[in-house]
Amino acid sequence: MASFVETLNEQIGHEFGASQQYVAIAVYYDSENLPQLAAHFYRQAVEERNHAMMMIQYLLDADQQVSIPGTEAPRTSFGDAVAPVSLALEQEKRVTDQIVELVKLAREEGELVGEQFLHWFLQEQREEVASMTELLAVVERGKGNLLQVEEHVARTSGGENPLEAGAPPAAGGAL
Ligand SMILES: [Fe+2]
Ligand SMILES: [Fe+2]
To answer: Residue 17 has what pLDDT?
Structure first.
């Protein structure tokens, strides 16, 4: 079975993969002339990149090996404006499962410092699944009038995320 450190190295790839997927979603919305949805996902892409860099900093601090993994190609074409958000929600749920598995591994190996590091990610996943679930409902409801969705996103996004204050340090500094 893979160790905690090996699995955390793999997770770096999942976070960079999530970042790439969010860039692809942002580009889709940009090309559909939906700038608020695009901006929302460009910001999410930076957050995911920061998550990867936090994991890298953790491994550096723990004097463990860091090997930067490659990522799977993101999905770049979507049937309608709802599809990217449902893909994003699936992705956030999958990452939640991955973080939970990492916490279990840390516990099994007695890596309590590593487990504590991951607690922030559990909170972050709770927040991201909740906000993506809400956005999916908004896009579903507004798919006949996407300008309403744009107004909603403009009103509700860009607020300070209270979790940012307690975020773990990121290698090279968070963007
Ligand atoms: Fe993430
Ligand atoms: Fe996320």
So the answer is: 98
> Separation of 145 CA from ligand 1 center, angstroms?
30
Q: What integer best gives the mean pLDDT of the chain?
A: 96
Amino acid type, 112: L
Contact 28, 142 (CB under 8 A): no
Task: Calculate how far, in angstroms, residue 15's C-alpha sits from the geometric centre of ligand 1.
Answer: 5
pLDDT tens-digit series, residues 105-154: 999 999 999 999 999 999 999 999 999 999 999 999 999 999 999 999 99
- What lies within 8 Å, CB to CB, of 27 at 6+ separation is 38, 76
Give residue 160's pLDDT.
Answer: 73
Scanning the structure block, which residue is given the tokens 């999958």?
94
